[in-house]
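step=encode ok
step=design start
structure_in=
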């Protein structure tokens, strides 16, 4: 199949939903594959294609986001008029952006039901465990610059009523707790987005209380994974040059989970309390790890990959790492440059490490090697 992506298990695990193109060149649609055997079946037939989808809590329906259809072109001389209102968008935009809205379709077919409309555009959705409520990440318009004004809104699927979360933008939608009492979301800790680290907060789904559960972690945080009991979660963030993870109880202090040299890429908590991690170690490709989700401080556990694909296995050869440290305006700064031999370019040549933002006295540092170095900026210890 063409363009396969976003695989998602049904709540009972008997079906696998995914996005794919029905035919080469067609728009992405949702397909469902039975795990007991048989062919995948197309569920959606949206004209504009599906952006993303989620299962309903009972597995009987799908919620999907789709961009509004373009207006029919005018006739006569007006057909040459391609002007549109320019907003806070990319300078390469050549047509008026169209909002993304939410639809629901029964798994067994039937006419899809539109759940949102208007000029606002949906950035994401989450389904509550009881299936009665949706959390919507809503932008005020379809313009890309509206992303710094994202708000969260609750939609009652029985009544159609909506309720705002009541937190100033920007916010990043995360996950409902397993018992549905809390919704996790991220937002900057300061007034200027992008200049302050993001924290993870909890909002009571019935309204009222907002809790800052990661105030004790002075790092930029992103990913959230609730543990099955709903009383704690795992959050990931960046600590200098490492992607690390913390265990965050709802009542108590966060604790960093010991993972050694493993950089966390993906994580998933199982129903019996174990934790599956896709992680990478220096000079190794990403692999699959299995560990206990709690207590914190447990080692990363056993590596469960029986082996990696031949293309990945070839990447475990030696690499060269060069650290360059210099005095910045306030503090020592350094580049960590890694040149790995697993992706040789068609020709050898020089690549350049460019510090940003540029300052007087800083210049590009040319390096040579069999592969293009990957550089990251980090504070020197």
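sequence_out=
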């Amino acid at each position: 199949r063409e363009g396969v992506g976003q695989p998602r298990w049904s709540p009972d695990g008997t079906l696998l939903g995914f996005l794919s193109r029905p035919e080469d060149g067609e728009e992405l649609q949702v397909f469902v594959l039975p795990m007991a055997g048989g062919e995948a079946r197309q569920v959606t037939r949206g004209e504009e294609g599906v952006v993303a989808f989620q299962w309903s809590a009972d597995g009987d329906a799908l919620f999907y986001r789709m961009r509004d259809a373009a207006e029919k072109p005018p006739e006569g001389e007006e057909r040459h008029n391609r002007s549109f209102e320019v907003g806070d968008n990319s300078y390469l935009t050549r047509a008026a952006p169209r909002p993304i809205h939410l639809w629901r379709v029964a798994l067994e077919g039937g006419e899809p039901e539109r759940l949102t409309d208007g000029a606002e555009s949906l950035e994401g959705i989450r389904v509550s465990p009881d299936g009665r409520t949706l959390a919507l990440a809503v932008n005020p318009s379809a313009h890309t610059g509206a992303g710094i004004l994202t708000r969260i809104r609750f939609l009652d699927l029985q009544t159609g009523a909506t309720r705002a979360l009541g937190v100033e933008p920007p916010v990043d939608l995360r996950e409902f707790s397993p018992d549905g009492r809390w919704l996790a979301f991220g937002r900057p800790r300061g007034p200027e987005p992008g200049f302050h680290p993001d924290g993870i907060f909890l909002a009571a789904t019935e309204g009222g209380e907002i809790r800052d559960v990661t105030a004790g972690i002075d790092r930029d945080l992103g990913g959230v994974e609730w543990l099955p009991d709903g009383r704690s979660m795992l959050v990931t963030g960046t600590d200098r040059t490492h992607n690390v993870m913390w265990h965050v109880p709802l009542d108590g202090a966060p604790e960093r989970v010991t993972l050694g040299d493993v950089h966390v890429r993906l994580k998933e908590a199982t129903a019996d309390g174990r934790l599956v991690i896709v992680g990478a170690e220096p000079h190794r490709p990403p692999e699959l790890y299995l560990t206990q989700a709690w207590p914190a401080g447990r080692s990363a556990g056993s590596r469960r990959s029986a082996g990696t694909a031949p293309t990945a296995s070839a990447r475990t050869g030696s690499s060269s790492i060069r650290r360059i440290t210099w005095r910045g305006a306030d503090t020592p700064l350094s580049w960590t440059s890694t040149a790995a031999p697993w992706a040789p370019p068609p020709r050898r040549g020089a690549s350049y490490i460019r510090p940003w933002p540029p300052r007087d006295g800083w210049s590009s540092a040319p390096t040579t090697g069999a592969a293009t170095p990957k550089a990251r900026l980090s504070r020197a210890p």
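step=design ok
step=annotate ok -> The two ends are 49 Å apart (CA to CA).
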